From TrEMBL:
It is a multi-pass membrane protein. Belongs to the TRAP transporter small permease family. InterPro entries: DctQ, TRAP_DctQ. Keywords: Cell inner membrane, Cell membrane, Membrane, Transmembrane, Transmembrane helix, Transport. GO terms for cellular component: plasma membrane. Residues 34-172 form the Tripartite ATP-independent periplasmic transporters DctQ component domain. The lineage of its organism: Bacteria, Pseudomonadati, Pseudomonadota, Alphaproteobacteria, Hyphomicrobiales. This is TRAP transporter small permease protein. It comes from the Bacteria.
């Protein structure tokens, strides 16, 4: 379900490439942080008979943000599971209609998740993140007071990014069909990926 470049469309977009590079940097650096924290945790536990009580919690929060931030980009790259039995057996207009029938409920669902996710995150503005408070108190002597809101807000942020990818993908497919091009179902080389 990825958008690929065609002769009629641009294959490079500076804004999208900035977004893609930022997402890749976030993915790599956050995974590095998780790996380092877990290595230190294992070393502390088995070599020094001590434990970092905040390590597992902090890694969980980073993993939550990774999941929700990267799901839109994974959709764009065609890395989510898709079932397409029709492929090139139907004409492009029918294929576009089927994509609309499939995408519309997903977009509505994402909208409801965004709204309820935001409302849920706002409920936790008064509760602080224990792991961050523990680390900050150890370093400075005073709690950081960073609210749990910043963990829960990952849900509406990530779903918003995924919704944007869904809408733009459908708009690009509609444009291709309207201009006589076919929508693309096969993965393309990385350098040929169209923006969103």
């Amino acid at each position: 379900m990825e958008a690929t470049a065609t002769a009629a469309g641009p294959s490079r977009n500076p804004l999208f490439h900035f977004y893609a590079n930022a997402i890749k940097f976030i993915a790599g650096s956050s995974m590095l942080v998780i790996v380092v924290i877990m290595i230190v945790q294992v070393a502390a536990r088995y070599l020094f008979n001590a434990s970092l009580i905040w390590a597992e919690e902090l890694c969980r929060y980073i993993l939550i943000w990774q999941t929700f931030l990267l799901i839109g980009f994974a959709y764009h790259q065609g890395e989510l599971v898709a079932l397409d039995m029709l492929g090139k057996r139907v004409n492009p207009y029918v294929k576009l209609l089927i994509r609309f029938i499939v995408s519309a409920p997903v977009c509505v669902f994402l909208y409801f998740i965004i709204v309820s996710g935001w409302n849920n995150a706002v409920r936790f503005t008064g509760q602080s993140i224990p792991a961050v408070d523990f680390i900050w108190t150890s370093l400075t002597g005073a709690p950081a007071g960073l609210p749990v809101f910043w963990v829960y807000v990952a849900v509406p942020v990530g779903c918003s990014v995924l919704l944007i990818h869904f809408v733009v993908r459908f708009a690009l497919d509609a444009y291709r069909v309207a201009t006589g091009q076919d929508t693309h179902d096969q993965p393309a080389p990385q350098e040929e990926i169209l923006p969103l």
